[in-house]
Design goal:
Order of helices and strands: HEEHEEEHHEHEEHEEHHEE
Strand content: 15-25%
Number of domains: 3
Largest sheet: 5 strands, antiparallel
CATH topology of the largest domain: Beta-Lactamase
Bound molecules: adenosine-5'-diphosphate, magnesium ion
Strand order of the largest sheet: 2-1-5-4-3
Structural class: alpha+beta
CATH class of the largest domain: Alpha Beta
Shape: rod-shaped
Number of helices: 8
CATH architecture of the largest domain: 2-Layer Sandwich
């Protein structure tokens, strides 16, 4: 899928760039062609004026000083198309002359290729001339005819064409090279840009797969126990209490799991925001640990709290409570009877530190780096019995990071675990 996106991205980019390069290249080419020919055409027009002035009735045409820098040829035709005069002489002969003669009279100079050379030609009507001839039948008489003439000014534009064709080569190779470079660079860059997207996508896929897997087990348990109950429709709830209890327990587990999943899904899409209000961390800790003291006593554990002073924090009280509950839940869950749990809360520099330590089963060094991963559980078989889904610490980590804090865990197997949270007081 990502390969396809990558190819699409690159093709689109390259196509856009290619079009841009082509358009700008063509524009440059046309502009330059226009400018170059404009100069030639101006020269042709000047020359035409001069030539016309110099041919009142005699056919003498000579380029004047201003146009001498442009090697131009002027040709005068009579009304039959015969060449009356060419200056300089004999520049064009036979076939070339025929091709030139065929050009139409026009205000706009035209381009023509003769013998592999390029020329720009301006063809115009010239003033007519009176031709006086002796009449052979009446020796005394004279024949006077008005001959309409055509004046052509021709200029070689090989140099201009040369510049233009070189430019064309430069534009075409530049465009192709640019396109090739864009494709190469684009492919590389698109690959790099897609890496985080691919990773996020894969994480999301994994998350969905794990979530469905986690939901399947309690659902199967609920289904099988409901079926068991249906087999004895006449039995009372009391007689079926074992099955009812299992169904209830699994439903509770699922509710918790779904709400955790929802939390994480919302954090992923940045829909969950942290409310920043002033709160008293010492009071929150006191409050939450009070709720857990009874539970600890029931499991014959000691719960100590050390709260140092008046600890103020900007943050979301509900989320901080949730964080404490997650940490205390774990401490209680993974500590045996007779163990002890300690909660320490104090100010250290610009941050507040919250430490939850227990003398429980600890975490294997191999598991330690992964306990904050979603769905990660140290001992799958055991924690399943404890009802954990492996999402607690992921949520805890999100809460801490949303408060711009840090969370870390230290643990010695069979000795105990300490989770330390540090929250900056100004977040
Ligand atoms: N206080 C603790 N003592 C021992 N192991 C712990 C403790 N806290 C967390 N763990 C380990 O980290 C894993 C992940 O914890 P958590 O995300 O809260 O998931 P859950 O508690 O649902 O299994 C647990 O399965 C457990 O193996
Ligand atoms: Mg937990």
């Amino acid at each position: 899928m990502f390969q396809k996106i990558r190819v699409q991205l690159v093709t689109l980019n390259a196509a856009v760039l290619l079009i841009l390069l082509l358009v700008s290249g063509m524009a440059l080419y046309l502009f330059l062609e226009h400018r170059l020919l404009e100069r030639v055409d101006d020269g042709l027009r000047d020359m035409q004026l001069v030539a016309v002035q110099q041919m009142p009735d005699r056919l003498v045409v000579r380029p004047n000083g201003r146009t001498l820098d442009m090697p131009m040829v002027t040709i005068v035709y009579d009304n039959q198309g015969g060449v009356v005069q060419q200056a300089p002489d004999s520049q064009f002969v036979n076939g070339d002359l025929e091709a030139l003669r065929d050009l139409k009279i026009s205000d706009v100079p035209q381009s023509i290729k003769l013998d592999g050379h390029s020329y720009r030609v301006l063809t115009a009507l010239a003033p007519s001339v009176q031709v006086t001839q002796a009449n052979p039948f009446f020796p005394a008489g004279l024949d006077v005819t008005n001959v309409q003439r055509t004046l052509q000014v021709v200029r070689n534009i090989d140099a201009e064409e040369d510049v233009l064709s070189t430019l064309l080569v430069v534009i075409v190779t530049g465009t192709l090279l640019g396109a090739a470079l864009t494709v190469g660079a684009g492919f590389f860059l698109a690959g790099r840009a897609l890496v985080p997207i691919r990773q996020a996508w894969e994480r999301q896929q994994q998350f969905v797969a794990d979530a469905s897997h986690e939901l399947r087990t309690p659902l199967a348990v609920v289904q099988s126990h409901s079926e068991l109950m249906l087999r004895h429709p006449t039995e009372t709830v009391q007689e079926q209490s074992r099955n009812v209890a299992v169904v209830l327990k699994e439903t509770k587990r699922m509710t918790k799991l779904v709400s955790d999943l929802l939390t994480l899904a919302r954090t992923d899409s940045n829909q969950l925001l942290i409310e920043g209000r002033a709160l008293r961390l010492d009071e929150v800790v006191r409050d939450v640990t009070e709720d857990y003291r009874l539970m600890a006593e029931l499991q014959e554990m000691e719960l100590h709290t050390q709260i140092h002073g008046h600890l103020e924090l900007i943050g979301d009280e509900n989320r901080i409570r949730q964080l404490l509950v997650i940490l205390l839940d774990n401490a209680l869950k993974y500590t045996m009877e007779g163990g002890s749990i300690e909660v320490i809360c104090r100010q250290i520099g610009p941050a507040l530190e919250l430490k939850v330590s227990d003398t429980g089963i600890g975490i294997a060094p191999d598991d330690l780096p992964r306990i904050f991963d979603r769905f990660y559980r140290g001992d799958k078989a055991r924690t399943r019995a404890e009802g954990g889904s492996g999402l607690g610490l992921s949520i805890a980590q999100w809460i801490v990071e949303a408060h711009h804090g840090k969370i870390r865990a230290e643990s010695t197997l069979h000795r105990g675990t300490t989770v330390t949270v540090s929250l900056p007081t100004k977040s």
